[in-house]
Amino acid sequence: MSVSSDRIRILSIDDHPVVRGGIATLIATQPDMTVVAEASNGREAIEQFRRHRPDIGLMDLQMPELNGLDAIIAIRGEFPDARIIVLTTYDGDVQALRALQAGARAYLLKNALHKELLDTIRAVHAGKKAISPEMSYELAEHAMDDALTTAEIDVLRLIAAGKANKQIADLLSVTEATVKGRVKNILSKLGAEDRTHAAMIAVKRGIIDLWR
Amino acid sequence: MKPSSSDSPVIGPRLTLAFVVLIALIAVGNGLVIWQFQSARLQTNRLAGAQQQLIAAFQLQVSVLSLHQTLRDLLESADARRLSAETAPLRTALSDEGVRIRTALASLRANTPLEPALLPLMESIQATLPAQLEAINDLTMTGDWATLQRRLQYELPPLEGQTSELVNRIDQRARDELGQAMARMRRVQNSILVIVPATAVASFVVAAVLGWSVLRRIVELRLEARVAERTRIARDLHDTLLQSFHGVLLRFQAATIVLQDRPMDAKQQLEHAIDEAAQAITEGRNAVQNLRSATAAADDLAVAIGTLGRELAATQATDRTATPPVIDVSVEGTPRDLHPIVRDEVYRIAGEAVRNAFRHASAHRIEVDIRYDERRLRVRVRDDGQGIQPAVLEGDRPGHFGLPGMRERAGVIGGRLDVWSEAGLGTEIELTVPAAAAYVRSRRRSSLFGGRTGTYS
User: Fold this and answer.
1) Among B104, B21, B22, which residue's Cα sits nearest to residue B58?
2) How far, in Å, CA of B79 to CA of B158, rounded?
3) What would the pLDDT profile of B195-237 be if each residue is shown by its tens digit?
4) B246:A164 CB<8 A
């Protein structure tokens, strides 16, 4: 395989073959970049990163076995200058923030991929950072919000699973009064009207993930 | 965090505890009341026994005294003929009285204490009386009235004394029993006045708590089921339609980029994108089918699965060149009415197995066995295809709810799913649901349709 050294070498990571196929096709139209390997989950992504040392990793977040966020953390732990672009369906600001804090260089929404992917790859390869415009509004919107504590996120996750305060208290081994206090904080921090609203906001902003 | 309801027991320990407490409360309350009534009944029996003995003793005393009075009167008159004529009926009367008393005492309850002196005294009266009367008769014949009078003077008073002493003793005992009975009755009354309202109030409270908990649990379970269902829908959409659209969009973009310079490449990419879009529509349709109450139109499981098989075969016949597998659905046992949710889930699980066999197994023949057992519903889907890779058997293949999803669904309706598969030898899945979870209890299907074995293919 003869790959000229001036091409941007890309690792494409997504559990959906259709998306990987689309990305490969789009990138194949560009003379200055090439897909060197593909992976369908976080674990494979780490292995392929070790083997190919790509210039850019395109990382989906919702994946089986090992999700994208954990894979980013693991890869950045091993290769501190790894350049990873997150590709995701969801525009939750908290999820984006977590990915960026984990070391992702860019955060792209899949619905804008066909327009933004190629430019973003070049920008990140040149050392810049990038966020989908839609995403940047979301981040700005909540930039000054009080962040939820991990304890509050645990409660929120159980609320979203349809549990009542008493059950949540049992599951987390705390008193019902504690749960009530946390729920009150959650509602005020998220600006939610009730529990259901809070759960909806939590899913939308990527605070919790209903996947696993 | 898995939004499945199988990670917590469905009824919950609190509910079970409340139910047990309620039953215990009702049992203990009723037990106490019965115990109180039983002790009151025993006391009443003792009292009745004492009263009967008292009456018997009184009658005995009256008989003895009236006999003695008659004897004294006759002696006063000194009429020998009248004396001998009238002593005979007196004797008979006293003997009859003895029999009556004995019968009355024999009918007393076994545990009633009997005055020990009553019967012996009566016997001795009955034994000595004839002799006395005989002697009196003899004396009247000789006309020795003085001796007779002396004799009666000595012999009658002790008997009278004994009798009256006996009466006094029994009377005393009856009074004691009456006093005890009154006290006992008062206690019983008080106890019952406390026990009955206390049991009623406590039972009501526990029953109210129980009812409330049941209601809450139902709401919780329904909420959890709704959340789980919504999550599943979101996951299905994310895994199928959305990803396909993203992929197709990228291909379109690639095609527009190369359109000018390399039109043939662009055409190829567009064709590829069109294929993927068609595939996405198929997947979307399947997802929608999964959402719809799958068996609502045909409430018969076998008919629904047979229809699905026909549809899949028709789709595959137009899509591909290979001949689609033959599907054979058979029913064993008497078909029973299934709970609608169970019916839907069984249909979805079996349907997914059939779909897998159509899509991935390259099978020639698919057999679906539905067996309505007395104890369980059992559905088997067997194919003669290439089998499942061990990795897929364990793991979660994206884009499908796959085997783990099928297991999860089986768990939600209280059933279990077993899978056997070997490379080249085909795949068999078996879903079993216990009768209690699967069948609608009240209405049995008419036996007119029972025991049929049919083929819907």
Assistant:
1) B104
2) 26
3) 888 888 988 888 898 888 888 878 877 777 777 777 777 777 7
4) no
Q: Coil, helix or strand for B396?
A: coil
Sign of CA dihedral B439, B444, B450, B455: negative
Query: Which residues, given as ranges, of chain B have pLDDT below 50?
Result: 1-9, 396-401, 443-457
Three-state DSSP class for residue B392:
helix
Where on the phi/psi map is residue A191: left (φ > 0), alpha (ψ -120 to 50), or beta?
left
User: Which positions 153-212 of A are in contact with B (Cβ < 8 Å)?
Assistant: 157-158, 160-164, 167, 208, 210-212
What SS3 class is residue A42?
helix
- Give the CA angle between residues A145, A147, A150 to the nearest 5°: 165
Interchain contact A64–B (C-beta under 8 A)? yes
Q: Chain A closest CA to B403's CA: distance in Å?
A: 14
What is the ipTM score, two decimals? 0.77
Question: How large is the greatest C-alpha to C-alpha distance in chain B, in angstroms?
Answer: 169
CA distances from B244 to A15, B227, B241, B247 (A): 12, 25, 5, 5
8 A C-beta contact, residue A92 and residue A208: no
> Rounded to two decimals, what is the model's pTM?
0.54
Encoded tokens for A29 = 């139209």
Three-state DSSP state, B418: strand
Name the DSSP letter for residue A112. G
- Dihedral sign from CA coordinates of B204, B210, B216, B222: negative
| pLDDT tens-digit map of B29-73 | 889 889 988 888 888 888 888 888 888 888 888 888 887 787 777
* Structure letter (DSSP) for residue B383: E
